[in-house]
Amino acid sequence: MGSACAVLGFSLVTGYVVARFSAPVIHNRYFPWIMGRTLGLGAYAALVALVLLGMWVRHPWRHRRPVLHPETRLRLHAALGASVVVLVIAHVVALSCDRYAGVGWKGALVPGAASSRPLPVTLGVLAAYGLLAVTVTAALGGRLVIGRHWLTVHRLAAPTLLFVWFHGVLAGSDTARLRIVYAVSGGLVVLVGLSRLTARPHRPVASSPAPTSTFPGPSAGDDPTPGWPWVSAGRSPGVRPR
Length: 242
What we know:
The protein is an all-alpha fold. It has one domain (about 1-200). The chain is built from nine helices and no strands. The protein has helices spanning about 1-20, 30-55, 70-95, 105-110, 120-140, 150-155, 155-170, 180-200, 230. The model is unreliable at about 215-240 (pLDDT under 50).
């Protein structure tokens, strides 16, 4: 819970700073648009981090260049996913309530129904549905009828990010000021994705075989718990103390 709140707070602050710098508030009537743009940029930043971390979780280089503990990576990945969902929902609500955005509730839910910039908005709507599918199947992975099929749906995260990238570039009126942000973030995702596809699989170093002993170890019905003398004494289960 703490990780999710921290990621959500960081995404909100990042989105607000970028939107505040690129689109200063002129009148109060633009507040819904500013909030919608802030939430959208925050969701984009969190989604880029989510995809990068997701690719690194299965990257062959993760063994040679460990960034975080595996459990920490998974927890952060889940927290980023939850933050993206919350930010996207807030982004849709803010722009749907803005009378000057030309989106409305119908345009935010039905592809091609927006009166303003229908193609970029449609890309955003499709990306939102893709994100919903990835999130729901990941949450239900291993349960009900989903089973292991969640991994197949999970691979939609990359094309979903592509739709989001074009949505932000084409729909944002401040894209000219954010060209570096889009170029660097998009290029970084492409580089990490290509490195994952072309990297050699990690091969663990084979360890030397354990020394054999003339003393028999525990039988198949025994339970080698800490109560056994060779376990409690820090010895291998195959060698009993003399």
